[in-house]
Write a structure and sequence with these properties.
The chain is globular, with a radius of gyration of 20 Å. The chain contains 14 helices and no strands. By secondary structure, it is mostly helical. The model is unreliable at 1-13 (pLDDT under 50). 81% of the residues lie in helices and 0% in strands.
């Protein structure tokens, strides 16, 4: 691909202003996404997920048409390795989307915020395990605090905070694999939603034919919100994909704080979800861990 050398170069040498702008816009839009999902909270998460996939496909195709990158899709379709990787990333983003839709609609947006707060720390752990990156004492301390916070939440609730952990694992692994997908960010997103549309479109058609779908059998607001699912889904994800290709993984990790912070504030002050003292203490531990993580990243950048 014509833009691949510059992309690789930016990943090796550091961050770019374009990458920062893309990522900032993506995380900001993701932060306010719960407001949109809450309006669809009376629908099944699977129906919302299917519409997010199907309505994203024409939007992604339009982007490729304008940028004249459909040739890359033809090349990707002839590569079994690329198709397998795209299938894996598509599966991970499906798990993440469905879990998040359920979390917001069922009144657990705070748990969703916690999952995305933990994710940067999981990225460090993932880099240590898969890339053999050495952990600094501050990074190790941050990970320990995160484990303690999860342990406290598990003890308080009598179960693992599965929503938070599912969001953490699915998005962390997706981010890691997405950076290695051998296609451009927009092409990769098109591949993902194209693969997911294979089961999603028949599911929507079945719902509408059986009278259970909300696109034609719901309120006018339901119809418009579902039709807007493509824009709400594709725009921030494609912005993120473009930003991730132009930023270091460490920079992406720090910028991730923006999304869960907005989600947390919306959950507490707009949705009025209960925040028990124990849960607040767990958040304080996570925020302390992120403070250690940020301090370590600042020291490393200065040393570099």
């Amino acid at each position: 691909m014509a833009n691949e050398p510059s992309t690789v170069a930016s990943q090796q040498t550091g961050d770019t202003p374009q990458g920062f702008a893309y990522a900032l816009a993506a995380y900001g839009l993701w932060g306010i996404l719960p407001l949109y999902l809450k309006a669809l909270g009376h629908l099944s998460p699977f129906e919302v997920l299917a519409h997010r996939v199907v309505w994203s496909l024409p939007f992604a195709a339009l982007i490729l048409l304008v940028t004249r990158r459909f040739g890359d899709i033809r090349a990707a379709l002839r590569s079994p390795r690329t198709l397998v990787m795209a299938t894996v990333t598509a599966s991970l983003i499906t798990v993440n989307w469905c879990t998040y839709v359920y979390a917001v609609g069922s009144g657990h947006a705070i748990e969703g915020a916690l999952g995305y707060f933990i994710n940067p720390l999981f990225s460090i752990l993932l880099g240590s395990i898969l890339l053999k990156e050495r952990l600094s004492p501050l990074q190790m301390g941050a990970i320990v605090l995160a484990f303690v916070a999860v342990g406290i939440l598990t003890w308080d609730a009598g179960r693992l905070p599965w929503i938070s952990l599912t969001l953490t694992f699915s998005w962390g692994i997706y981010s890691f694999l997405r950076k290695t997908l051998p296609v451009g960010p927009n092409q990769g997103f098109f591949l993902e939603v194209a693969l997911l549309s294979v089961p999603a479109l028949p599911y929507i058609l079945w719902l509408e034919a059986s009278g259970q779908g909300h696109l034609t059998h719901g309120t006018a607001i339901d119809s418009w919100l579902l039709a807007a699912a493509g824009i709400a889904t594709a725009v921030p994800l494609m912005l993120y994909a473009n930003g991730a290709k132009r930023l270091r993984l460490s920079t992406i990790g720090i910028m991730q704080y923006l999304t869960p912070t907005i989600i947390f504030l919306i959950a507490v002050f707009v949705f009025r979800e209960p925040l028990s003292p124990v849960k607040l203490f767990a958040f304080v531990l996570i925020w302390s861990a992120l403070g250690l993580y940020s301090l370590g990243m600042l020291r490393n950048s200065r040393a570099g």
